[in-house]
Amino acid sequence: MKKVVIVTGGGRGIGAATAKLLAKQGYQVCVNYRVNAKRAQAIVAEIMTAGGQAFSVQADVSCESDVVALFDATERQFGPVTHLVNNAGILFSQSAFAAIDVERFQKVMLANVTSCFLCCREFIRRNTSTGAIVNVSSAAARTGSPFEYIDYAASKGAIDTLTTGLSLEVAARGIRVNAVRPGFIDTEMHADGGEPNRIERLASQIPLQRGGTPLEVANSIAWLLSDDASYVTGSFIDVAGGK
Ligand code: NAP
């Protein structure tokens, strides 16, 4: 079966590792990015050099018309979208809850939750049968991220609930919806949170004593998308080193 996947936020970090792994596994990959065209194009070039098929599409996935255009572009390039990885996400500087303003809270919800809602909705509107979605949540949905980013943690909690509800609604159609909850993964996101070396600082508190790699998360995403996980829906894989 032809497999066409959109990976949102695929230009770097976990998204890039996922796009490359899925291309190796035979998926035709749409590498979505918001602003960093060069990074996304570099991932596409790497995939093509290795013999895979990919192209990049600019879209802010928190914007409804961009999401429709993203799916249209992917369909034109490769045909109907059969798989979706909702990976795009943001966080802001570490902050106590009382210091978080409404503008920041709304930006986080828009980028993390609205984007997931819009892409899932577009996928199931177009997909009448079969397919699989993996949402990238976070261990923060369980821990709540006190003194760091409760807004971000709450957005990931919303993604978990969306995953559960949607998985039940579309199961009879043969569409599976699952999520991964990464813990401390070595990406540039921590610099955005104001602490590039956050993982080194916290490594001793992680049962496996180290941060994870983007590929370790990508492996779980790829498994959940695959037919090996054909009886798995509404499930969550914690990729968090035991945390
Ligand atoms: P990252 O390196 O910061 O990458 C995030 C990507 O999302 C960027 O490529 C960015 O693209 C894209 N993006 C953000 N907003 C977007 C939007 N509105 N539309 C399209 N693309 C957008 O982050 P990461 O660490 O790989 O994280 C990937 C996912 O894993 C996120 O959902 C994150 O919350 C989750 N996660 C990460 C960790 C961790 O420790 N790293 C832990 C738990 C969960 P541009 O650069 O073009 O804006």
Largest beta-sheet characterization: 7 strands, parallel
What's the architecture in CATH terms?
A: 3-Layer(aba) Sandwich
Rg on CA atoms, Å: 17 Å
Q: Catalogue the ligands.
A: NADP nicotinamide-adenine-dinucleotide phosphate
What is the share of helical residues?
Answer: 40-55%
Helix tally equals 9
Uncertain stretches: none
SSE-based structural type: alpha/beta
What is the strand arrangement across the widest sheet? 3-2-1-4-5-6-7
Beta-strand share of residues: 15-25%
Just give the CATH class: Alpha Beta
Question: N-to-C terminal Cα separation, in Å?
Answer: 37 Å
Shape: globular
Q: What is the CATH T-level topology?
A: Rossmann fold
State the domain count: 1
Order of helices and strands: EHEHEHEHEHHEHHHE
Instruction: Please identify which CATH superfamily we are dealing with.
Output: NAD(P)-binding Rossmann-like Domain
Average pLDDT, rounded to a whole number, is 97
Number of strands: 7
